[in-house]
């Protein structure tokens, strides 16, 4: 049998019967053996080849795979010319397990043929009752029997002739019907180099099966023996490897099960601890709310008692009685008036949160996630960072940051708070600036705005509906900066090329009729400056008041050069 599955009798190649490979089921509706079907094309195998990962595919299907390494070519068979002494290497991905499978130097044709797959394909052809098999010898009669030695299907006439020939008279010939019932069929493995010769020998030196011609031609000096003699030893070696792999797989499975069981126990312990902490938090916050309620109730009772006493004193007391009780009454009323009371709950319901993505440390080698967060944001402890909250520039973006803190003044590490920012003109209530609030998810919030009109604005920053410390703020938005229209120079004399009529916003002059400034002369600021307004900062706003002149007094200008 050659690499593409052809069989040869007497030197003439005879192809095996082939099913319709466009289907994966027989004509009688029975499913085809999956071991006879290629995973890629879903057809019966044609020239099946084994990849290094031990998955089998049609040779043409492997050729159509895109290489993942090797020469920059398309297709597994293509390759760039190799350098002298080098062999091109091409690697493909197995369509089943995604393993990298390097192809041998001979390409796809150099891969090992899967003879078991060929046997399965042949068995499918025998089991398909709708497929009428032709005689492999005459090609005319309907095959009824099969010679196991020649791997040929024979009609009755050729079968009789096969038995009469001296060379084939001892061959075992069985009925195809018996083969169909047995469900097993085997084809002899023929040499790819010597047609018609079966691989019955094995070269220990080269570790490959051979035919008689191979031994005589190229392996005469090698350690060769019959395949039947060496099979027990090599088969036992393979079985040992299988047992080692199975034992290793079982060890890994035990490790996985042990790790999983311990991890489940760790997660369960963590869950119980979370529930315990949650119950402790509930009890503590309930006590805080009860205490706050009792304190507010007592404060209300104190206020009512003081008011009732004062009203009764004023309504029923004489002048002397009122004046006699004035001191203690006023002191009490003043003390009550100066006391501050918070009507906001000290323990809000939304202060208790479960954060499933938050790391909760480790229990041995097992990382745990999920924490109970009870740190509530106190709006009066929140702080603002950034100068843009007090000063802004018309049509220029401004931004500031809000950092949330808890009652102890410690920054919180999580976002999700209801932050509201409103910016409204102090004189024109219909003029407002839209503010964008971005949650950084770390307890801080980025606020940005772009004022359209100049003026004074009131900025309200609230968390949970309550003003943060210092809110509302006053934001002063200045008019947009005026650009310089002159030249940033060292002096007028240098920038104008010595022209006498050139002037500068600094007001300096030079003797000899020069109307502009010069180094070391009267009025020169002693440093580089703008000719339009005299400002010594290159990135400053123009201070000139004269339209088009750029001078504070509308007198000085730099003549265009």
From TrEMBL:
SUPFAM superfamilies (alphabetical): B-box zinc-binding domain (SSF57845), E set domains (SSF81296), RING/U-box (SSF57850)
Broad EC category: transferase
Regions of compositional bias (Basic and acidic residues) in chain numbering: 1-10
EC numbers for this chain: 2.3.2.27
Filamin repeats: 374-477
Stretches the record annotates as Disordered: 1-26
Domain RING-type: 38-98
SMART domains assigned: BBC, BBOX, IG_FLMN, RING
Keyword Transmembrane: no
Keyword Nuclease: no
Highest taxon listed in the record's lineage: Eukaryota
Gene Ontology terms for molecular function: ubiquitin protein ligase activity; zinc ion binding
Annotated keywords: Metal-binding, Repeat, Ubl conjugation pathway, Zinc, Zinc-finger
Domain B box-type: residue ranges: 130-176, 186-233
Any Gene Ontology biological process: nervous system development
Reaction it catalyzes: S-ubiquitinyl-[E2 ubiquitin-conjugating enzyme]-L-cysteine + [acceptor protein]-L-lysine = [E2 ubiquitin-conjugating enzyme]-L-cysteine + N(6)-ubiquitinyl-[acceptor protein]-L-lysine
Family membership: Belongs to the TRIM/RBCC family.
Name used for this protein in its record: RING-type E3 ubiquitin transferase
Lineage: Eukaryota, Metazoa, Chordata, Craniata, Vertebrata
């Amino acid at each position: 049998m050659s690499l593409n599955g052809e069989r040869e009798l007497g030197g003439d190649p005879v192809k095996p019967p082939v099913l319709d490979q466009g289907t994966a089921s027989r004509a009688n509706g029975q499913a085809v053996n999956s071991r006879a079907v290629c995973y890629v094309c879903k057809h019966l195998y044609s020239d099946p080849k084994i990849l290094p990962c031990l998955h089998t595919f049609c040779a043409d299907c492997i050729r159509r795979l895109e290489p993942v390494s090797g020469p920059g070519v398309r297709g597994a068979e293509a390759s760039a010319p190799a350098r002298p002494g080098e062999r091109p290497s091409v690697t493909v991905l197995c369509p089943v397990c995604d393993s990298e499978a390097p192809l041998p130097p001979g390409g796809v044709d150099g891969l090992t043929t899967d003879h078991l797959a060929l046997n399965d394909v042949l068995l499918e052809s025998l089991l398909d009752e709708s497929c009428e098999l032709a005689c492999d010898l005459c090609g005319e009669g309907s095959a009824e029997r099969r010679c196991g030695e020649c791997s040929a299907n024979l009609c009755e006439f050729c079968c009789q002739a096969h038995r009469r020939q001296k060379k084939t008279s001892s061959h075992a010939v069985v009925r195809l019907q018996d083969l169909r019932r047995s469900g097993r069929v085997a084809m002899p493995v023929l040499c790819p180099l010597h047609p018609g010769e079966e691989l019955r020998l094995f070269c220990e030196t080269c570790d490959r099966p051979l035919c008689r011609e191979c031994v005589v031609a190229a392996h005469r000096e090698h350690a060769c023996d019959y395949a039947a003699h060496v099979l027990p030893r090599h088969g036992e070696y393979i079985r040992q490897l299988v047992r080692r792999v199975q034992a290793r797989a079982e060890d890994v499975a035990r490790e996985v099960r042990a790790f999983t069981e311990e991890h489940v126990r760790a997660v369960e312990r963590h869950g119980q601890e979370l529930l315990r902490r949650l119950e402790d938090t509930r009890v503590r916050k309930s006590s805080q709310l009860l205490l706050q309620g009792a304190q507010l109730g007592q404060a209300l009772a104190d206020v009512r008692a003081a008011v009732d006493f004062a009203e009764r004193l004023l309504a029923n007391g004489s002048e002397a009685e009122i004046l006699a009780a004035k001191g203690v009454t006023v002191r009490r009323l003043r003390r009550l008036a100066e006391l501050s009371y918070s009507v906001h709950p000290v323990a809000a319901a939304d202060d208790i949160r479960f954060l499933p993505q938050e790391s909760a440390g480790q229990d041995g080698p097992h990382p745990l996630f999920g924490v109970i967060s009870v740190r509530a944001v106190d709006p009066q402890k929140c702080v603002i960072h950034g100068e843009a909250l007090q000063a802004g520039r018309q049509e220029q973006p401004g931004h500031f940051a809000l950092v949330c803190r808890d009652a102890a003044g410690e920054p919180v590490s999580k976002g999700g708070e209801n932050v509201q920012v409103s910016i409204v003109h102090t004189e024109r209530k219909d003029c407002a600036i839209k503010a964008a609030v971005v949650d950084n998810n770390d307890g801080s919030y980025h606020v940005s705005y772009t004022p359209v009109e100049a003026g004074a604005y009131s900025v309200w920053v609230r968390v949970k509906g309550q003003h943060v410390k210092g809110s509302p703020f006053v934001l002063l938005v200045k008019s947009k900066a005026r650009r310089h229209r002159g030249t940033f120079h060292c002096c007028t004399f240098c920038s104008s090329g010595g022209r006498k009529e050139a002037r500068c916003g600094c007001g300096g002059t030079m003797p000899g009729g020069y109307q502009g400034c010069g180094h070391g002369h009267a009025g020169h600021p002693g440093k580089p400056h703008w000719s339009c307004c005299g400002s010594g900062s290159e990135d400053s706003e123009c201070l000139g008041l004269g339209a088009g002149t750029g001078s504070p007094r509308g007198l000085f200008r730099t003549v265009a050069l």
